[in-house]
Structure formats: structure tokens, C-alpha cells
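This part of the workshop introduces the protein records we will be handling. Getting from the letters to the C-alpha cells is the skill we practise here. An example says more than a description, so a record of this kind follows:
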Amino acid sequence: MNSQSVTGIEERFALAQSVAREAGKLALDYFKRRDTLIIETKRDLQDVVSVADREVEELIRSRFGEAYDTDGILGEEYGLEQGVSGYTWVVDPIDGTSPFVNGMPNWCVSIALLHEGIPVVGVIYAPCFDELYAARRGNGATLNGKPLTVDPTRTIQNAVTGFGANSHVTPASVGKIVEGILEAGGNFVRNGSGALMLAYVASGRLVGYYEPYMHAWDCLAGYCLVKEAGGWYHPFPAEGERLTKGAPVLAAAPGAIDDLKKIAGL
């Protein structure tokens, strides 16, 4: 698919960046007064949500709804609204809510745009660092306007790998991931935001990222960024209701693909 032939993608890309910054500003305001937030739990005591998540998503939904009322939108907090334009926005208002509510800067606003199931726009904004990662299919990826290209000489052995886990993943599986990375001669980090760690793969800070179970709103923007920076990703099922379910997520620079696929069993 040639992104140039898809009507309206450039305008939507510009809007996504503007909305990400606006949403990030609202989220950062909540972050600075997070002690006043009422924190609720979802699946377990580690899976948290606050009014900040909901209000930021409401802002994002309203902006896209005003501009493109025939587009679909899927958000972590309010689910899927089907559209008829062929476009679907996929949004995580605050990815890394746990770091957010605990006063750590590792969180972001993640906005992806799907066209016929393919991520054609990926925008991730990390307000605490004022870093805007942006990619449009066929036009590369940038960080605050500077082009991003993954380094083909980087491997698991000479760089750092990111991984993630949640209550869908068994403790034994987490142990196997850590063991696999270390046995391959690598090192690892986990910062609490899968979307941000995928952006770090695109920017070369990490050589790869793996999470056994992740949702579309956490990964699709990062996938677009990684692809446009010259990396690779394991496809995410985006057909119909499968878009709302979790799946394995793996993205890597070329030199780490084989090792990470082996560790992930993919």
C-alpha cells in the first residue's frame, strides 16, 4: 500500500501530533497533582486507572470525533467505536499508569491510526521528557523532528533489550524471558510503559522489545515507529473484534530479530 494514495493520511498525521501534545499537557497537569487523584484497580492491585486516564481519553476522542466523525476509535478506557471510513484510531491515553501514579516519568500518550488493519500513523508523546515520536507509513520516523534510523550493528549482545509483563503472564514465563535474554549474552530493562519502550526501539535506545501479552492500544503506535525507523515487528491481529484482544508483541532492530524470536518462541 502506498500511503500517498490513501486520502487524508497526511492531515490525520498532523492532527495526531497536535492531539498527542494537547493530551500530554493535560496528563502532565494531573501528574503534577497526582496525590489528589483517586486510584482505582482493574484486574488486580497492580492494574490501576485514574480520572486522568479517562479525561485524557475523552479529550482525544472528542478531537478526532470533531475532525473525522466517520473514523473508528479504540481506546483503553472506553472501548471500540466502529467507523465507516476505513480508518481506526487506536489510543492509550496514559500508557504506564503505574509509573504515572507512583511519580515516575516513564509514561506516555500513544496514538496509532490503522488503515485496513495496517498501522499507517504512530505518535507517542512522553510529556515528562517533552519527546514526541512520530511516524507515517512510507515517510520515516522522527523524534522531535529529527529522523530516526535503527543501527544494524546493534544486537542483544552489545545493546539493551526491553521486556514487559502483566497479570496475563505467569511468573514462570517472566523468569524464562529474563533467563533467555541473559543466556543470549544480553541485558534488559523494564520501565512500566510498553509503548514508550517500543518508541525506544525506534530511537535506538533499546535493540528490541518483547511482551507475551499486550493490547493494540499499547503497541500499534510503537510498531509504526519501529517499522519506519528500519526495524521489524511481529504482526498484531487487527481484524474485527481481534483488535480488542491481547496478543504477543515483539519488535526489534535487524541484528536482534533472530535472538528475540527464539526467546519469544515466535
The two ends are 26 Å apart (CA to CA).
